[in-house]
Amino acid sequence: MILWLWQQTYWFPAVIFLGGLAVISWLFEKIINEFTYLWLWIVRWFEDTIKGQKSNR
Predict the structure, then answer these.
(1) Does residue 9 have a pLDDT over 60?
(2) Dihedral sign, Cα of residue 41, residue 43, residue 49, residue 55
(3) Rounded Cα distance, 45 and 52, in Å
């Protein structure tokens, strides 16, 4: 009984840990995608601003 309980308590955190890792990696991927999109938008806007300044001169 005690051994069974120990096995359950040993198995339970492992599942929570793996589940947490899966969720964290998924969230991280979503955040990276958002940041990449935002970064590309900023770079495009920056390039447009520089080109606009150069063409004005």
Answers:
(1) yes
(2) negative
(3) 10
